[in-house]
Amino acid sequence: MVKVKILATSDVHGYVYPTKYLNAADNQPLGLLKAATVIEEIRQNAAPDEVVITIENGDWIQGSPLTTYLAKHSEAPSELLSQLTTTLNYDAGVLGNHEFNYGLDYLRTCERDRDYPLLGANIDGGEAQKIVDAPYTIIERQGVRVAILGLTTSYIPVWETADHIVGLQFDSIVTTARRWVPRLRKQADVVVVAYHGGFEADPTTGKLTERATGENEGYRLLTEVPGIDALITGHQHRQLADIYQGVPTIQPGEKGVAVGMIDLVLDKSKQVIDHDARLLTTANAQPADWLATLADETESHVQRWLDQPIGKLSGDSLSVTDAMVARRHGHPYLEFVNTVEMAAGGTDIAATSLFNDDVRGLSTQPTIRQLLNSYSYPNTLVVEQLSGQDIRDALERCASFWLLNAEGKITVNSAFTTPKLQLYNYDFYSGLDYTFDLHQPIGQRVVRLDYHGAPVQPDQMLSVAVNQYRGNGGGDYPMFSAKKITREVNVDLPELIMTYFEQHPVVLGQQPTNFKIIS
């Protein structure tokens, strides 16, 4: 018998060190350095009859202050990211959706020093653009041939700006897998699918957990594509490890909090006769010093850069102490971000999100660190021409975020928390006066919607500034679309905020009064 042990990380988002960069001494139970220790211990302790294969499952080069620093400073070693994964000896990698956030040139630069293949079977044009190497790879060890098929969520064109994905087409991952898995079954003893995407349905029952848009198609992979021996998923930042539909499946969370592991046992005929799936927490692992030496100097530069002041604040505090209160009543921080969007977009209506609950806002003398911890995404800005009905529909989607429980207390609709936390899909608007009545049915809760003191009419056309994720309809907002974009500001929001501080050395914080919830 031979055992095949498959290890995977996913959605690390450039969190190399065990920190969320809350302050210079911040220490957290996460990061690639801890994951590296777990991976290396398994390799070192592997039995003679064990084959160990490692896969990096995407969303690696964007997401942390470290990755922002690398992307924003031309002198910084952006190739550091692939040096780290190469030194860790990954056998294969897959592109995530956030790999495209800084464009193809930057992606190629980041990946130029790796010595393992990047796989992208459903990225048509990926090899021509030199961002992937092949649809699959086959690794042969101890006489066992293991095929790894790489897939990336096909929903990327919905979020990403067109100039970041020039020459690329993202095909259905199910259609692609149907084409490739039977071929790989003829060439290999074991077929592994590494998919940067998650589950649109409960992987056990098949009950839909989100609208089936093509963003997440893991359940369809399990049930419509026979011949998969192991499935690696990601994108949703969930922690999953189980046997679903007979296939051992993992999703190892985010930021390196866990390493996913699938064990396969093969008989003498090289047929899989047993399997298992589990997650290995990295919380108690010591960071791998042998890997950290590659990044220590850059990390020191990052820490100094993060503590640079960017301006001053007066008036109401932009510090967020209770994220849910901020969503229910509006908040000076949200009003400020909308003010920046309106200034950059030339509108007097804007919408923004508080993302998830780790946003802390800004102090009276904000720093780059505070800004990136509060707005960590490189979203650019778009202006869309929307009808009054479009805006009302968008606000109804926001109003569905809230529910009243049996005691009449406001709670959050589980559709925004389960199976994946999606608090970032609730927006706060500036430039409009609006009221939600939670006693009304979902879809009929916007009971006031005024613009400049007059009710908004269904056919009235208004310009709205939003980030490009929302502007392309991301977050189940189909009333937004690329066809309605009238202006693009191809500068990411954190940079727009810093520019605003340069133009306004002292920013006045103001508690908004344009929004009300009747509960």
TrEMBL record:
Biological processes per GO annotation: nucleotide catabolic process
PROSITE patterns registered for this protein in UniProt: 5_NUCLEOTIDASE_2 (PS00786)
Residue ranges constituting the Calcineurin-like phosphoesterase domain according to the UniProt record: 5-238
Pfam families: 5_nucleotid_C, Metallophos
One GO cellular component term noted in the UniProt record for this chain: outer membrane-bounded periplasmic space
Cofactors, names only: a divalent metal cation
Keyword Protein biosynthesis tagged: no
GO molecular function: 2',3'-cyclic-nucleotide 2'-phosphodiesterase activity; 3'-nucleotidase activity; metal ion binding; nucleotide binding
Subcellular localization: Cell envelope
UniProt keyword terms in alphabetical order: Hydrolase, Metal-binding, Multifunctional enzyme, Nucleotide-binding, Signal
Domain 5'-Nucleotidase C-terminal: 324-481
Catalysed reaction equations from the record: a ribonucleoside 3'-phosphate + H2O = a ribonucleoside + phosphate; a nucleoside 2',3'-cyclic phosphate + H2O = a nucleoside 3'-phosphate + H(+)
Record-linked PANTHER family: 2',3'-CYCLIC-NUCLEOTIDE 2'-PHOSPHODIESTERASE_3'-NUCLEOTIDASE, 5'-NUCLEOTIDASE-RELATED
Family indicated by similarity: Belongs to the 5'-nucleotidase family.
Designated name of the protein: Uncharacterized protein
